[in-house]
Amino acid sequence: MDKEKFLGEFEQMLLLAILRLGENAYGSTVRQLLADSIERDVSIGALYTTLDRLEAKGLLQSRLGEATAERGGRAKKYFKVTAQGQDALKRSKQALTNLWQGLSIRESIHG
Amino acid sequence: MDNRACHLPPKWASNLLSWATPATLREHLLGDLDEEFLQRCLQSPHQAQAWYISQALRSTLQFIKKTKRGLIMLLLSVLFFVAVSVMGMMLGIEVAAYFDVPSILLVVAPAVLFAIAATSFNSFKLGFSLLLNDEAQVPEAALRGAQQMFTVMGNSALLLGGFTTLMGAIAIGSNVGAEEFASVFGPAVAVCLLTLYYGFAMKILCYVAQQKLQFKLSGLSPNT
To answer: Which of A15, A55, B88, B90 is most buried, judged by most C-beta within 10 A?
Structure first.
């Protein structure tokens, strides 16, 4: 039996956002994508705490990018989902799909 | 639109966040925040300022529990020490009877000067800055110098407390006659003992500071 833990909800969202952004995935773009696509206004601190944890687990890898004047001369840190990260995402999705199978939840009706 | 407001985010918020953020994340995180601030500022400077402050405060709260754990514990323990001491004072007599500015100056000022004289002004400054910053990395020799400064300051305060109490005792013995003994002796001894009391209080605080630096010297961190 696979004893690896499943990803948390926010971890999945971050990995998916990074996959969507491709080569342009760094803190600011990830934060904005989450705000635009799922209306979740996360703090930059919470974002980096999770990114750091995912990188430590080997699910993400990072590289330093360019420093620009609009960033106060500070370098960007680009992120990329590793093969291990993609596997973890697939397993989490599969687990949820299995649990959803055969279930039907009545659509809630809001004005 | 005020374009001047778009150049920089609120400095205090930026400094606060920089102080709380782990060193490994600081550069990228602050850069990302500056970049988004500038984009938002082009639309509405006031909203951008509010957004930046909100991000800085939320993120500071996020990090401070991890990066400043040692400082928070130090402040809480000192506050607890002060609270318990004040409570003890209130059980006896009026709290005001424990405060005497000349006695404080007799102990604290020479103890600080002795500590600087025996070590260096840099060690004095470094000692206090290390108490506020658990992440600071300094050479072992500088760390030992700062630790030595607290040792000298604490021991000097205690010895000065004893010395000035003896001075007071001699003065009482020389000046208090038989006729006023009953009314004067008690209050005079109380004031005389205050310097010893301040010496012990300062020794306790310096001992904790010294042990905190010893913990750091051992390669340990309160944040791990």
So the answer is: A15
Kindly state whether residues B130 and B199 are assigned to the same domain: yes
Please give the residue of chain A at the shortest CA–CA distance from B59: A45
B79 min Cα distance to partner chain A (Å): 29
Q: What is the pLDDT of residues A30-71, one digit of tens each?
A: 999 999 999 888 999 999 999 999 999 999 999 998 888 888
Residue range(s) defining the domain that contains residue B143: 69-217
Whether residues B34 and A68 touch (CB distance < 8 A) is answered with: no
Looking at the fold, whether B99 and B186 belong to one and the same domain comes out as yes
Q: Is B208 exposed, middle or buried (0-12, 13-18, 19+ CB in 10 A)?
A: middle
Residue B222 lies in a domain: no
CB B64 within 8 A of CB B24: no
The ipTM, to two decimals, is 0.83
Question: pTM of the entire structure?
Answer: 0.69
Residues of B in contact with A45 (CB under 8 A): 17, 21, 29, 55, 58-63
**Architecture of the domain spanning A9-99:** Orthogonal Bundle (1.10)
Give the model's pLDDT for residue B208: 93
